[in-house]
Write a structure and sequence with these properties.
binds zinc ion; 27 strands; 19 helices; about 575 residues; seven-stranded mixed β-sheet; eight-stranded parallel β-sheet; alpha/beta
């Protein structure tokens, strides 16, 4: 295999001007240093002073800075990179999920599902207060709702149970749980026509347990509340897990939301949890927390969100760079709430565009005028187009340089590819999803146009048109492991084949996506995202030469050490 990178053409030592007066705390040498600085060849060594990168260069150049108190680590030729940045992760929810019964999209028979529920009752992992919760069910589960009737009978009849779909937009609740949430035939009848599909029901209007979107959230709201202590523990678990994966920063796109709480303009969500951790010096990661704004929020609503924001402005390692807006839902059958240009073939409906195209631009413009970034959930090609239209309005008003982004981007119409560059919109992509599997082939492909199917997760098309791609996971929807996503991006291979091989992108693009590009997406590119003098020394050491190994070997890459601000926060051997 041809080397993908020049094998070490060390340039002159890159050093901060304060070098002469620095006390060098740490030197990592005999490494292949991928700095993520565009165009810079591999380097050999990094010196760290006071939590920041002091110098990057050849071994001889950097080792010259060594002082008696300097910790010197010989990395034995291993790859050293900047810490990874996840540009879309519900990390505290992810931490909660680590302690729950989670199926990770695995299809089980009803008997197996019942078995998992029983095990979860014994271990305690299935209990949420007095209710039972199993999450991560594949969307295909909802094709056979009759099978779930078992959980309305016998020992389960009076026990509230919720099964939550992999996509977190769909689920099933048994009658005991529906009764607690007040979901009955009368409630179904009271739904507006466009809301009918959010609570599954038979011809008489009797709920069958299936729930989507607003219907689901109305039931989840009636689950026993997750306690602050559980959220704190979840946040700690998330940080430790992320450190083991080499992730040292993330965007939490829904930080004013907390599991089981109703979201309002005054909600503080999990922000107090991040603050409490920071006060205990345990927030060893950068968190860029966004506040969810309603898709139809007015510029005046931003004043309310600003009051929330102001309560958390001086928390170390926490930034509040902007807002998140949902432009649509998900495309999988039967939810089909992603907003499409062409209607779904079965229902002839276009999905649900949550924004109001006539006014959405005013919201983006108002946020941009405040210097806030807008991060938009858009999955269907219509939602993507309307998101771009909204951002266009702000770009026409001023050249703010604020890094707005669209995340998910499952379906993008080719006409919109060039607009990411012209409007300077970052594509925050969960490329772990770019695979031919049950979801894309069975629950999406039959219902959308051939062209929409072809341009799913169109990474290469966007790249060719000059877009900036930032890496993202959407944990806990799927795994937060960056190397799995990197492998998917370079292979697009799944259980049902390759999802449009023309959209494969190269590994170096993905390295940039998870470092410097994601740093820009969370507006911290001046502080993190590359190994450059003056930036924080967030670094990872890898177990294999990710610059050279075969693509398949990227998937199982292990992080050996993670440094946050020059301090070792994870070591696989210890
Ligand atoms: Zn998300």
């Amino acid at each position: 295999m041809k080397p993908l990178f020049p094998l070490l053409l060390s340039s002159a030592l890159v050093c901060s001007p304060l070098e002469s007066m620095a006390a060098v705390d740490l030197i990592l040498h005999n490494a292949k240093v991928y700095t993520a600085e565009p165009g810079q060849p591999l380097q050999q060594a990094v010196a760290v002073e006071n939590g920041k990168v002091l110098a990057v260069g050849s071994d001889s150049e950097v080792l010259r800075l060594k002082q008696p108190s300097t910790r010197v680590l010989d990395l034995g030729g291993k790859v050293l990179m900047p810490g990874f940045i996840d540009s879309h992760s519900h990390a505290i929810k992810g931490g909660l999920q680590l302690g729950q019964v989670y199926l990770d999209g695995q299809q089980l028979s009803i008997a197996e599902l019942e078995q998992r529920l029983r095990e979860g009752m014994k271990s305690g992992k299935a209990w949420q207060g007095d209710a039972l919760l199993v999450s991560g069910l594949p969307s295909a589960s909802w094709s056979d709702l009759k099978a779930f009737k078992r959980f309305n009978q016998g020992e389960w009849a009076s026990q509230p149970i919720v099964f939550l779909g992999w996509d977190q937009h769909t689920g099933w609740a048994n009658r005991a749980m529906l009764a607690r949430a007040g979901v009955d035939a009368a409630r179904v009848k009271a739904l507006k026509p466009e809301e009918r599909d959010t609570i599954g029901h038979d011809e008489d209007g009797q709920p069958d347990g299936f729930l989507a979107e607003a219907g689901l959230y109305s039931v989840l709201d009636k689950m026993p509340k997750v306690t602050d202590q559980q959220l704190l523990d979840a946040a700690r678990a998330a940080i430790h897990y992320y450190q083991s994966l080499g992730v040292t920063a993330w965007m939490d796109p829904t930080a004013n939301d907390a599991p089981g709480h109703t979201l309002t303009n005054q909600s503080v969500g999990v922000l107090p949890i991040y603050k409490a951790l920071a006060q205990q010096n345990q927030l060893d990661a950068h968190v860029a927390a966004l506040l969810v704004a309603d898709a139809k929020a007015t510029p005046a609503d931003l004043d309310e969100l600003d009051k929330v924001r102001r309560q958390f402005l001086d928390v170390p390692n926490l930034t509040l760079p902007g807002i998140k807006v949902f432009a649509d839902g998900v495309p999988e059958f039967p939810a089909q709430s992603a907003a499409m240009l062409e209607p779904y073939k079965n229902s002839h409906k276009h999905g649900e565009l949550l924004t109001d195209p006539a006014h959405f631009g005013e919201l983006v413009n108002a946020a941009d005028a405040r210097g806030w970034l807008v991060h938009i959930h858009a999955i269907g090609d219509r939602a993507v187009r309307e998101s771009l239209n909204g951002i266009e309005q702000a770009r026409k008003a001023r050249d703010s340089g604020v890094p707005h982004s669209i995340t998910h981007l499952q379906m993008v119409n080719p006409q919109d590819f060039p607009r990411f560059k012209t409007l300077d919109v970052i594509a925050s992509m969960q490329l772990y999803w770019a695979a031919a599997d049950d979801l894309t082939n069975d629950l999406v492909q039959p219902y959308i146009s051939a062209m929409a199917y072809q341009y799913q997760y169109p990474a290469r098309s966007l790249l060719k048109n000059g877009a900036t791609i930032a890496g993202a996971s959407d944990w806990p929807v799927t795994t937060p492991e960056p190397w799995k996503a990197i492998y998917q991006a370079v292979s697009r291979t799944g259980p049902k084949g390759v999802l449009n091989a023309d959209e494969v992108i190269d590994r170096e693009t993905m390295f940039q996506a998870y470092t410097l590009n994601a740093a820009r997406a969370i507006r911290l590119e001046d502080r993190i995202g590359s190994l450059k003098p003056g930036k924080q020394a967030d670094m990872i050491v890898l177990d294999r030469d990710v610059l050279q190994v075969e693509p398949e070997a990227l998937r199982d890459t292990q992080v050996l050490r993670t440094f946050f601000a020059g301090r070792e926060v994870f070591n696989r051997k210890i």
